[in-house]
Structure to design on (278 residues):
């Protein structure tokens, strides 16, 4: 059984993933002693009331508006659940302070300067930047297979046409008139992360775990028969070949976010405290 989480858990953001994460952490047999939530300026009072209501006395809750105030509370680990900009802006100070950081906004690392800054800060602080699998899975075997030599990593993201509205897919095909699946984008993970930022986290995760942003191939599909979002990827390597397919269930708080992402974040946070890590 897990030891009581005597250290508090820092959380950046109070949107759908952060709030799902709070639900999951508070539901544990041994929940964290405290949650420290970092929000944007002007949101402290409203967030405190809502977060306390949500935690229902299972964890103490503090809400702060500056990363310095978050660090003063001495969190055992911080989970970033806010935005790519938040990961880039707050991440270095947290890591330099020696606090491990679990990031949801993995697409932030598609920017080489951000990756370098976070890497350097983690080295300086002797802390770890933890990249959870997020909406996808199979990252353990992909990163293990990388050690054997990867041949190809190909990702296909498939969504109903309406889910691609407001993206460059609109220029590539007539989304509303589709009668069969259409592959409207084939390119590198780097271009996919840039042109389709809502897919940036998955593309960046696969690239960082595997062949990198310029050698990981991404295909994006609009399928009029699709009822949800499907992530499929194929790995060919010297140690193992495998194919993964995951059908996301939407977060009840935000249908655009996979419910599994908050569980993946929770697993990464809880693993920082467990004696046996799976
Ligand atoms: N890794 C994955 O597979 C995966 C999957 C889905 C989403 N994400 C990423 O996770 C992040 C959160 O997603 P979400 O669905 O919860 O979004 P959301 O819009 O529901 O919530 C984000 C919250 O963060 C707050 N925020 C933004 N910048 C902030 C800052 N600098 N400081 C403090 N708070 C800030 C916003 O006000 C908002 O309340 C996004 O970057 C998203 O791209 C990752």
């Amino acid at each position: 059984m897990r030891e009581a989480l005597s250290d508090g858990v820092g959380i950046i953001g109070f949107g759908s993933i952060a709030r799902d994460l709070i639900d999951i952490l508070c539901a544990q047999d041994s929940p964290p002693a405290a949650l420290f939530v970092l929000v944007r300026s002007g949101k402290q009072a409203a967030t405190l009331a809502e977060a306390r209501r949500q935690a229902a006395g299972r964890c103490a809750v503090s809400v702060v508006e500056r990363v310095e105030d978050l660090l003063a509370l001495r969190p055992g680990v911080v989970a970033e659940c806010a935005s790519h900009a938040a990961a880039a802006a707050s991440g270095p100070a947290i890591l330099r302070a020696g606090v491990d950081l679990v990031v949801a906004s993995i697409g932030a690392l598609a920017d080489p300067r951000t990756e370098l800054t976070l890497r350097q800060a983690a080295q300086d602080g002797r802390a770890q930047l933890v990249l959870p699998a997020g909406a996808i899975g199979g990252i353990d075997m992909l990163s293990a297979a990388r050690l054997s030599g990867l041949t190809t990593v190909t990702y296909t993201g498939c969504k109903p046409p309406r889910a691609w509205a407001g993206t460059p897919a609109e220029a590539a095909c007539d989304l509303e008139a589709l009668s069969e699946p259409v592959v409207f984008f084939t390119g590198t993970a780097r271009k996919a992360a840039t042109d389709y930022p809502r897919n940036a986290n998955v593309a960046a995760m696969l690239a960082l775990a595997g062949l990198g942003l310029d050698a990981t191939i991404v295909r994006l599909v609009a399928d009029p028969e699709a009822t949800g979002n499907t992530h499929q990827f194929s790995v060919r390597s010297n140690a193992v070949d495998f194919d993964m397919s995951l059908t996301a269930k939407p977060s009840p708080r935000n249908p655009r976010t996979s419910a599994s992402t908050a569980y993946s974040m929770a697993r990464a946070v809880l693993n920082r405290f467990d004696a046996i890590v799976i």
Notes: The radius of gyration is 19 Å.
